[in-house]
Amino acid sequence: MYFHFDSKDRVLREVLCVGIEESLVHLHAALDAVGPDPTDRLAAAVRAHVGARSDLSDYAAVVLGVQGADFARIDGDFRVRRRDYLSRWLQLIQDAQATGALPADHDPTLIRHVLFGAMNCDLARRWTSALAADTMLALLGLGPTAASAKKPSPTGHRHEPDHDLDVGGNDDDPDGRERRAGP
């Protein structure tokens, strides 16, 4: 690997650049596929981000693992692309606020941070990226209802958690009152 890269920082920089570039490709493709309606554009962006998070899981893990001070070590291209990605999101949120699709009395940067927190959490072990995006959009009032979110996904997975992977108990029974049979 060091034949191609002269340091760990260079490897990290390249992985970050590829990850953010692919995320931008997903975002541009999604936005190109919808019309000018701000609600449709924000919904497409959420689906694209959650899909990219799933499709690019190796890159996403690196990008999400790099925190504040570490970004200072990463020069040039990544920072420019990341700034571009974040500013596009800010514009999408401001456009949705201008039409009333999102509340205008909340800071759009804070909304972006909350959205990214939700979109970047690890859902892949339990739900499809499409179902996660649809649920997020429903919570924002921009997408399908909860009833339609309970339909099986194209891969046959349902919304219920896989109890073999469930560390915290049954999500439908947060108090643990319902006991399931078996080990």
SSE topology string: HHHHHHHH
Oligomeric nature of the chains: single chain
For the record, the CATH class is Mainly Alpha
- N-C termini distance: 46 Å
What CATH calls the topology is Tetracycline Repressor, domain 2
**Radius of gyration, taken over Cα atoms and rounded to an integer in Å:** 19 Å
DSSP helix fraction: 55-70%
Q: What is the architecture at the second tier of CATH?
A: Orthogonal Bundle
* Structural domains: how many: 1
**Uncertain spans, ≥5 residues at pLDDT below 50?**
146-183
Class from secondary-structure proportions? mainly alpha
CATH superfamily: Tetracycline Repressor, domain 2
Describe this protein's structure.
This protein is mainly alpha-helical and 183 residues long. The chain has one domain: Orthogonal Bundle (Tetracycline Repressor, domain 2). Helix content is 58%, strand content 0%. The relative contact order is 0.11.
Write a brief structural summary.
With 183 residues, this protein is mostly helical.
Topology diagram in text:
Elements: H1 8-32, H2 38-55, H3 57-65, H4 68-73, H5 77-98, H6 108-119, H7 129-139, H8 146-149
Keywords:
183 residues, mainly alpha, Tetracycline Repressor, domain 2, 8 helices, globular, disordered C terminus
